[in-house]
Prior knowledge:
Layout: H1 2-8, E1 14-18, H2 21-34, E2 39-43, E3 56-62, H3 71-81, E4 82-95, H4 101-111, E5 118-119, H5 120-130, E6 133-142, H6 145-152, H7 163-170, E7 174-182
Parallel strand pairs: 1-2, 3-4, 4-5
Antiparallel strand pairs: 4-7, 6-7
Amino acid sequence: MLLSARRVGPTGKVYGLDMTPEMLELARRNQDEAGVENAEFLFGTIEEIPLPDTSVDIVISNCVINLAADKDIVLREAFRVLKPGGLFAVSDVILVRSLSAELTSLMGLWTGCVAGALLVGDYKAKLAAAGFEEIEIEPTLVHDHDAVERLAASLPLPEGLDRVVAIEESAGAVANAFIRAQRPAE
């Protein structure tokens, strides 16, 4: 957030959003220490952003949308606050292919993020339904066999689930990705 404030320069403004007073306090303390004046931190949620319609040029987020219970609301809210021609540019966890419900919940234990990850096609469909165009999803890190095995090494598996089978089935299914889309220019 503070890096973004520097990038937009002294005439630009950056908003940070968090739903916990502790994180807002930490962000403001970091802002003061960095001497950044063109940032404002807001208390709220991504399902109800406390900004007016068409008020920002870019919405950025780092691995948060996958944690939201209702991603449709989140994407509509991002669309609402973007100006016409505005850019949605986030990093998020995605599913490259489907996992069984049993593995999805297990992966959720491993990473805290996977249980809410969307399949690439579903993510694109939800962005389009919110009104976005020029949708791109670019995987940046696919969690291969070795990565999944390292994550699974210290966690207990539910009874009846074979560790080797679980690792083989989930390897390559989860990825970090850049997701970009644009609100149409009116």
